[in-house]
Amino acid sequence: MRKPRKQSLEIRNFILENVSTHPKDISAHVSSHFGISRPAVLGHIKKLINDGVLESKGTTRGRRYTLKPLVEETFSFKLSPGTEEDKVWRHLVRPLLSKLPENIMRICEYGMTEMINNAIDHSEGTKATIHIQQSAVNVEFLLHDNGVGIFNKIQRDLGLDEPRQAILELSKGKLTTDPSRHTGEGIFFVSRMFDRFVIYSEGLFYSPSEMGYEDIPDLHDSAPGTKVSMSISLRSKRTSQEIFDRYASEVDDDFSFSKTDVPVSLARFGGDNLVSRSQARRLLNRLHEFRQITLDFTGIDSVGQSFADEIFRVYARNHPDIELSAINTNPGIEKM
Length: 336
Description:
Blueprint: H1 5-18, H2 26-34, H3 38-50, E1 54-57, E2 64-67, E3 71-78, H4 85-93, H5 102-122, E4 127-134, E5 138-145, H6 150-158, H7 163-172, H8 186-193, E6 196-201, E7 204-206, E8 226-233, H9 240-246, E9 259-263, H10 277-284, E10 292-296, H11 305-318, E11 323-327, H12 331-335
Parallel strand pairs: 9-10, 10-11
Antiparallel strand pairs: 1-2, 3-4, 4-5, 5-8, 6-7, 6-8
């Protein structure tokens, strides 16, 4: 008896969504998940290969399955005061994208124009390269400029102690080295719109999600400048307006960017423990620009009494108009 078409589509979608993390054992993974036989799974895999959305490499035990790129293009363009990000998007990027859902297209347009504009206005580079790859599951962008490097530039222009401090400031939002022309909101919002967002420069990287260097393919080389990697699932229901609304205040009908969430782990440089008031003040720097602040303690096992006191007593007392909250804490941190 043939399986219902609905289940067949569900199985094939599951294969496509999981093959990147299970390239060698996708048949066993699918068989276990749906409780169907290996030959049945291979039938679905064969159908996806025939449809041109999946491909296999190797034979027998060494066989790997990967998503087949439906679009894969690389091009370069000059960075100069006369370069216009909307034209790069409209003439070079947009024509390459194939049948994206409207919400995904809007996110891609916002993300790419913001990142291209950053390269034009801030990188101090002369050339940028864009790599686009679209599969049946997602669309990915890699933008690489040959400039001075984003973290080095932020450190230099804002007089910070080291490039790693630039990553912490970048994560908060409203950070710009040219306030007369920019609000500093672009990277913050783009990083929340895409499923995966990574900025890599000079051996350092920023991503809102927890990831290690081993999870960032094609970003590790000695090339100068900045790389921005972004990807989003074609099945995502997320919208750009949803992200704007998430970080907007509704107080007094003021829908401006007034909420932020900050990874506390970025205040820890190297193997440092978070114990001092100076570390807390570094974490809290510029946060008076927001009305609601969420501190995310993911990856932090403990904090010192002085660190906690500076945030939750001293800062809270001095800024009674700011709503300060903490998430992903453990009982030890909560006691502090």
